[in-house]
Design a protein that fits this description.
Elements (H helix, E strand, L loop, with lengths): L1 E4 L4 E7 L2 E8 L3 H16 L1 E2 L2 H11 L10 E8 L5 E7 H7 L1 H17 L2 H10 L1 E4 L8 H9 L3 E3 L6 H11 L1 H7 L3
Parallel strand pairs: 1-7, 7-8
Antiparallel strand pairs: 1-2, 2-3, 4-5, 5-6
Length: about 180
Amino acid sequence: MIVDIGGGTTEAAVISLNDIVVSASIRVGGNKIDELIQTYVRRKYNLVIGDRTAEEIKLHAGSALPLYEEELVEVRGRDQIDGLPKVRQLSSHEITEAISDALAQIVTTVKSVLEQTPPELASDIVDKGMVLTGGGALLRNLDQRLREETGLPVLVAENPLTSVVLGAGKMLTDLPLLRKVAMD
């Protein structure tokens, strides 16, 4: 099983014998998580922040589960009321709360794919687990949250940002395999 959390979408799929057996895709990914952070900061602190700032917040203090030691991140943006630049402190717990809806949708999608997986393949997933890839796989504790929610082993790909492209490149160098998996 592979779960690819990209910028715009999350895809979960069970692959067997060079074929996709079960899959699902939702329009929730890293960009949606960034939007949720922006919305949270705007509503709670009346502070408008940009896409880049939201992504930096996600990378530095974001977590799929509450952290044992709360981390603080300094957020710079424009005050909605007076239009002046302001600085606020945002905690990692607030970020976890802000992104919880998107993460819940990702977990629901993974569970949905697992529920549709044939029993023979489900037993393989119990043994080997699922692999997270894409930029969203870098979100702190996402693997742990999926492990807790599904009870399955969860691994993060060695290079989650580039693994999809590297895999596609390998397919192009193995023409017989490419023919096997090519869609009609």
